[in-house]
Predict the structure.
Amino acid sequence: MAVSGPHIIIMAAGKGKRMQSQQPKVLHEVLCRPLIEHVVHMACSIPHQSVSVVVGAQDEGIRHACKAYPEVQFIRQDPPLGTGHAVLCAKDLFKDRSGDVLVLNGDVVGLSRETLEGFIQSHSRGSYSASVLSMKLENPTGYGRILRDGSQKMQGIREEKDASESERKVREVNCGIYLFAKTPLFECLGSVQQKNSQKEYYLTDVLGLLVDKNQKIEAHPISDSREALGINDRKELYEVEKFLQQRVNDALMRKGVTLRHPETIFIDPYAEIATDVEIEGNCVIARSEIGTGTRVESGCRVLGSRIGQNVHLKQGSYLEQSEVGEGSVVGPYAHLRPASKLGKNVKIGNFVEVKKAEMGEGSKASHLSYIGDAIIGKNVNLGCGFITCNYDGKNKHQTTIEDDVFVGSDSQTVAPLRVGKGAYVASGTTLTKDVPPGDLAIARTRQENKKGFAQKLQSKLQSKKGN
């Protein structure tokens, strides 16, 4: 095997009819990512020469799910005629290439890097023409059986639908992960026929052909069968996610992350969580980074965001594609929408929504506010009920509030406008034009008290009631 690793083919052309879904099986999610992305991520993270994904007619969503991995090539299989046909579709891609070919399934997402690299090393040491990953199951229903002779030498694989009664009693099964020497693989694929109940070209038939040619093949058993479980329906989707969830959370806790009620916490396997982070129950964290010393209270969702050190995310807050600076406090029940950026020691209080806005160090909006399309300077106080009126029905406009500004409660800025450094905006003000630095802005009608009016009105009402 080449030092740089194998060529990797990921089979993702199946429709997954048993999922009872309109979308391809590999686009269903576990731990916040499509199945295919988990497999592509793993393939790209181990030594390899190339990574290719075999897709069918519904390929647009699969291509989109792999967009973060520009090195991935796509191979069209339409119509899908079995696993052997899927690999055969890639033949021209490897015409002028050397090395082994690793075949992965797009719905087998539990394989650890250690297991996969151990499989590749075993294949290399044994100089096999083909290796298959196997596992032992108490109930092997649905899996192809590993066939061995009296000396336990592997002879091939029999799909369950084509197996005899005695073969169906075999508990060692095929995981659907293969490693082939390139030349014998494609030589044998040309001889595979559709002699099975599905009328498909089985990749497993290559193993039998190799045995007939006295080529060495072997099954490499894995210690934890849960790693190689495939997904055929929603129940199995749940079981695989549960396994991954426990593995991710166990690793984080051993690393120094505190998880309260970890069985209710869902964390993307590739999220970066530092030590001394505390996460309470019913949280979802995906595609995000969280700095050391941060506390995430229950019910928070952190998606595609970067959270600094010693941040406090209070209960029920929702953060998406945002940045939160060191020492800041968000929530409870705050909403940071995409492109929000908070500096150090910023406070975003309960029921505050921020969208495409920057807030400088030490600024705060403690409650019941909307801050959209805005640049807020340092040490700015935004009072309760503050609103940036950023949308005119057609376009979005920006509000700029410079450093050290105080904005009183129930105020609005009708963008575009700028509030200068050190200005003071009185409560109840609606700003429609710029405020120079250091000025006081008041935009509300003058209060007028009608002496005795309320008393006279009450007397009049009581009199009518008596009649």
Summary: The radius of gyration is 31 Å. The mean pLDDT is 93. The CA atoms of residues 108 and 230 lie 5 Å apart.
